[in-house]
Amino acid sequence: MEKLLIATRNPGKFKELKLILNDIPYDILSVDDLGLQGDAIEDGNTYEENAFKKAHFFCHQAGGFLTLADDSGLEVSALKGELGLTTRRWGKGESASDCDWLEHFLEAMKDVPDRSARFVCYAVLTGGGITFGDKKGVSFYAEVPGIITTSPEAPLLPGLPLSSCFKPDGCDKVYAALNAEEKGRISHRGWAASKAKKWLIDNR
Fold it and tell me: Which of 7, 21, 77, 181 has the lowest CB atom count within 10 Å?
């Protein structure tokens, strides 16, 4: 069976992506399954650039395996120029626990009347001996608008603290309160990964 590497060290992301892709004819692997070391330097100017950097970094380490990576971020209307590309590095930073990071974020949003926001995601496929025309891969975009709740409305998901306080437009639950199938269907990462999945099926 062909192999597909999901290029992330975030356990929450890996779990979500594997679930979305689980019915395609690929053996889905994590970076830990292959014992890959290090991480990509995410210094791109866009989500797409950073997703490509992650995909190429781990694809090269894995010897050219078909690789899927994503980069996503939260853009908050009241915090323009913050979060976005550096969402998890914002505030308390990547070294903070999910709980501490989220507590700092919600404190910053405490007296903010405009709680509108959107999650943005690019998923990228590269490697696997696939021809992508004159490019080194193919990318898929998705975004989901919503609001930031005033407090967590569901238990924290490991690696995905914002899931407990982001409520998509038209939905009465935050991401973390949705079951895996529901979240895969309506989340930014779910949409982008589903587009990548369709591309793999159509171009296999």
Answer: 181
DSSP state of 60: H
CA distance 172 to 174: 7
Q: Is 23 designated active site?
A: no
CATH code for position 147: 3.90.950.10
pLDDT band at residue 204 using 50, 70 and 90 as cut-offs: confident
The amino acid at 197: K
Average pLDDT, the chain: 93
Strand partners, 119: 74, 144
Dump pLDDT digits (tens) for 155-201: 998 889 999 999 999 999 999 999 988 999 999 999 999 999 999 99
Residue tagged active-site, from 23, 71, 98, 111: 71
pLDDT at residue 45, as a whole number: 94
Structural domain range at position 14: 2-202
Angstrom distance (rounded) from CA 204 to CA 189: 22
Three-class secondary structure of residue 111 per DSSP: coil
The span from the CA of 197 to the CA of 141, in Å, is 13
**Whole-number pLDDT of residue 92:** 87
What is the b/e burial string over 115-144, where b = at least 16 CB atoms within 10 angstroms of the residue's CB? bebbbbbbbbbbbbeeeeeeeebbbbebeb
Q: Are 179 and 6 in contact (CB under 8 A)?
A: no
